[in-house]
Amino acid sequence: MKRSLNSCSTKIMTMKRQLVSELPLPLPQFLARARARRNGVVFKSNNVRLGFLSVLGGHIIVGDHCFFERESYAWADERFCRITIEDNVFIGRSTVIREGQRPHPASVCRISKGTYVGRGSRLDLTGNLHIGVGSFLTEDIRLYTHKHDIPSRKQPVQSGETIPESVFVGDDVFIGTGAIVLSGVKIGKGAVVGAGAVVTKDVEPYSFVGGVPAKKIGERPP
């Protein structure tokens, strides 16, 4: 009797090991992706890792070999916007990607393949946002896709409207720590934005800008 019970328990343990070994990723990853799918997220593959307490939801498409560090947050209410994250994208810890406080319909965000978004960054999706292939956003970056219409003195300041404006970041762009990119700006291919810069105007390809407001201070070597 003891032998049969031992044999039965051994078979059960073997079946459990086989079941766990057949999972493409550890069980917590499987559950995290399942939760995101319930929230409306579409994964093109299972090669996506979601860190502890990371949250994804809404109209989001995630490509292959993407990584979301712990406490990262990406949400796209299908009534207002959609997000496409291509292959080999890294989203850093505590980074937030979502529509603004006063969202406008039909905004689109595309984070192209090979992009790195560092920790503590904020990507506003009130308007359209495009980040090019292989761009590198270090830490605490702010990208704003809206501006505020300041009313006349006769009206309360809070009566001003939120106006969506697109932000375009080209391929192979480097943005230093703590930089701010305001709405309506286009950063050309290969440009470098210095740490702490506030970008208010378009940046030429392969140029180096820095300061508040950001000005051209050099160019990338050929």
Write the SSE topology.
Elements: H1 2-22, H2 27-38, E1 42-43, E2 48-50, E3 55-58, E4 60-62, E5 66-68, E6 73-76, E7 81-85, E8 90-91, E9 96-98, E10 107-111, E11 116-117, E12 122-124, E13 129-131, E14 136-137, E15 142-143, E16 146-148, E17 162-164, E18 167-169, E19 174-175, E20 180-181, E21 186-187, E22 192-193, E23 198-199, E24 207-210, E25 215-219
Parallel strand pairs: 1-4, 2-5, 3-6, 4-7, 5-8, 6-9, 7-10, 8-11, 9-12, 10-13, 11-14, 12-15, 13-18, 14-19, 15-20, 18-21, 19-22, 20-23, 22-24
Antiparallel strand pairs: 16-17, 24-25
Please tag this protein with its features:
single chain, 222 residues, alpha/beta, UDP N-Acetylglucosamine Acyltransferase, domain 1, nine-stranded mixed beta sheet, seven-stranded parallel beta sheet, 25 strands, globular
